[in-house]
Every structure is written in structure tokens, then in C-alpha cells.
């Protein structure tokens, strides 16, 4: 019945009826394998005083099909021109004013040299006349330095301000299905920018909005082929038989990885179907079982060792805390958190994870914001965040990265069962006014798995269209 009602609401009459209450959002442009490179379009670049990331930024744009422009009258125009010439990129100066006819597919500002609060005025000078010139599905990106590693309190304040600025811009441009992010690059990590920059400016990040990514100094790896960045890699995906797990498995395989899909025996038919379609291997089992870590380690070793570990499997057992059975609490914590820790420990101890390994965990918005009736689930998913952030330093020293995604309203069989009006409202409780797709979560995981993402670790990225819930 809900599908029948939805078909009516999506008809001409239904859309007219609902338009004033729930207007239809601009469709998000997602990854297209026919696109030659990661970005095609017009980019306007701005730079603040003492900007230091322009060489890295323009080095990346050289590999894109981008037309690069800059404000000709800006005080830092010379810096941009010099960096463009050094990178072999043609950059064209424009007279910037609110009445200009030019449109831009991306607006990028290097604020890495900000040292005090008054430097923030340069954000206004650059963005104020051009924000309306951003196209639908456009990108806004602000680059800075991590505020906790600043040289002074004043610089820390200026850098932390970039996060509030970019999140607010994201809310203003969301009606265009455009997104805004901030990337903080540590001193000395300029060569590690590539994976983060190319992801956020590309269509692969279409449902990632208002987020912050920190890039740390690490060994550098040349950016691989855009369409097959994971060629030759072996990836474990738990809970791979359907929903988000299936999308993760398919996306990693699309990007060239050999996938080992794991799920419980009742999901055997679906798991075998998915793995057969992507050329993957099947592992049946319960990740919370005592022998699960050894089974996983043995299977990965038989495949040449693991390069990518995706902890996606999880459960919900929802009930208010006062009414929750103890075994529901214990089961949720064990499967969603403790099992991941045990599996990782076994992989580390037995040397199963190959050099340059990637660990990606699936947390949740509710692990950040909390939710009534989900004390067990929220605790487990918040625990995942704590584990990722703590382990990042230890693993980076070994050349391994660990990150997490926190999905929001993602269209799955579970959301299809929600009453239609509730679902339509839920879809719009974010800056992009629409639900995401399982592939949006998968694309973010594939970004974390990218061999060039050597300096991307300890990050928690929400894939939620900048949901109004939580941080």
C-alpha cells in the first residue's frame, strides 16, 4: 500500500499537492564511469594571506578536466598565478562582482595561512560575490590547518572558525544539491592531500555534506587510476549480503578489489548471489563467535592477505533502557563493537593485514547524537568512534589507516517500510532535502580504502546530507 501511495505522490497531481509542503529536491549527480576524470567543470580559486596549499591544490587540478579561474583583483592573485604556472595549469583572472554572468562548478579557498581572527574577513571577500554563482551539484571547499596544532590561540581560533563557516555554507547551498566541506592538512602533509581533495570535489561525495576531513603526514602513494583505484587489493566486507553491506561489496569490486563477503548462515543465498555477481568469495559465520577471528584470518591469508577490512555487520535491538532485556544489551555491544575489536586484534597479531592496510568501520549518526530506545546501539556505535580515534596514532606508525563512516537517512528496505509521509519528511531533514543511497556510504568507504589516502586516518565522516540531527 505504501508503494501505491508513493506512486500517487510522485505523479503530476501528487507532486503539485505536496510541492508547497515537501518540495522535490534536485537529484544528486553520482559517479559516472563514463566521465574521464574525477572532476569536469569551472573552478574559482581563492587564497588567503600566506596560503601554503595552492601548489598541492593546483597539482591535483592538473589531472582534472578543469577550467581554473581566480579573482584578478585579489591581493593574493600573484600567489595563485605563481602556483598555477609551477603546476603547469592555465589559470584565468576574472573581475569578480555580484552581477557577473560567470557560473562555477566549484569554489575552493586556501585559508591555510590564516593566523588571527581578522584573517577571516578574507572568506567574506571571496565568497560573498560568487556564492550565488555556484551551479547545482556544485562544490565548496575550504582548506586549512588542524587547529589543535596551531602556533597560537589566535591561529587555533581562526582555523576552527573554518569548520563553522563551511558547515553554515553547506546549509545555505543545500537547496542546489551543492555541498561544502573543510579539509585540514597538517604541516608537511601537503603531498597527502590528493585522495581527500579528489573525493570531496567529485560526484562520489554527493551525499557527504558539511563534513571535516583531517589529512596527516604519512608516506605518499601516487594517486591510482580513478576508475580502478583498488586493483589488486583484497577486501573483507562483513554483513555483505544486502543493503549497505551489499553496496560496499559491489563498489569495492567495481573499483578493482577482490571481495571476501561475510554474513550469517541465514543470509547464505543472498550472499552467494552477490559474491557470484562481483567475482567475490563467500565466508559464512557469526562475527561474534569465538572462532570468527581465526576463520577470517585464515581465509584472508589464503587470498594473499587482507588490504581492506570493512566492519559493516551490526544489529539493532531497540527498546527504552528501563524496558530492555539484558541479553539485548549484551548482544548489541558484542556484535557491533567487541567483535570488531577481537577481529582486528587477531589480524594484527597474525600479520594478516598487508602493508598499507585500511580498516573502515561503520558507525552511525545515533552514535554521535543518541536516540530514544537505542542506548545499546548508540553506545556501541559511539564506542566504534572512540576506538577509531584512539587507534589512529598507533596504526599510522605501522602504515595502516583506520576511519569510520556514520550514515544518516539511507534508502534501504528498512526505510521503505516506514509510513510514506514519515519517510518523505525524514528524507528532508538534511541540507540536501533527500535521502541517500547505500552506494553513497560505499563511495566514502572506497575513499578511505584508496591507496593514496595514506594520511587520512582517525576521521569520522557522516554520510547524511548534513542531517539536522547531531553534530
UniProtKB/TrEMBL annotation:
| Ketoreductase domain: residues covered | 233-408
User: Pfam families, per this entry?
Assistant: adh_short_C2
UniProt record similarity statement = Belongs to the short-chain dehydrogenases/reductases (SDR) family.
Q: PANTHER family given for it?
A: 3-OXOACYL-(ACYL-CARRIER-PROTEIN) REDUCTASE (PTHR42879), 3-OXOACYL-[ACYL-CARRIER-PROTEIN] REDUCTASE FABG (PTHR42879:SF2)
The protein's name: 3-oxoacyl-ACP reductase
Its taxonomic placement starts with: Bacteria, Pseudomonadati, Pseudomonadota, Gammaproteobacteria, Oceanospirillales
